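Example record used in the benchmark description.
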Amino acid sequence: MPIWYLNVDGSSDRKGGGVGIVLEGPNGVIIEQAVSFNFQLNNNQAEYEALITGLVLAKELEIEQRKLEDFLKSLGIKHITSFVEHLQMNGQAEAANKAIISELKKCLGAVKGLWVEELPEVLWAYKCTPHRSTREMPFNLTYRTNAMLPVELGEPSIRRGIQDMSLNDEHLRINLDILPEWREVAMIKNAAQK
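Model output (structure tokens):
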């Protein structure tokens, strides 16, 4: 049976904290993960968060249950199985689908056979609506810019008239560079609510 080793470390300061996880597997396989928190916690709490995150990572990698039980027992931890985490990870797609189907039903009303034509508008509305868990729009988390519908008007708006297209590409590049940090902040907010 292959043996996996979990090494964790956590630290904190006034702005928040972070944890580092190194999972070493058989044949020299090393998996590293770093997580930062945008909320205050002390060093002990950071260490606990590191351990929990490492155990979640091990579980996601489907490391054998018996090895996990032995590891927890060596730390004096009584492991009580909880399915909440597993259900939340698997329920995300169903929750998104439920929201999309709900919006489709609202838009379609009596013309139920035209859902194929209405789906793009419903998806656009879903992507451009801030969600309660992250307080961000999925479109904004993906592209780090606000969605702007292409609308044809006789006169261009002031915003479009003064827009410098040469700077637009540069701004989009900058937004894409900082996108991972914004996603991480949204994930932390989402995790903090759970």
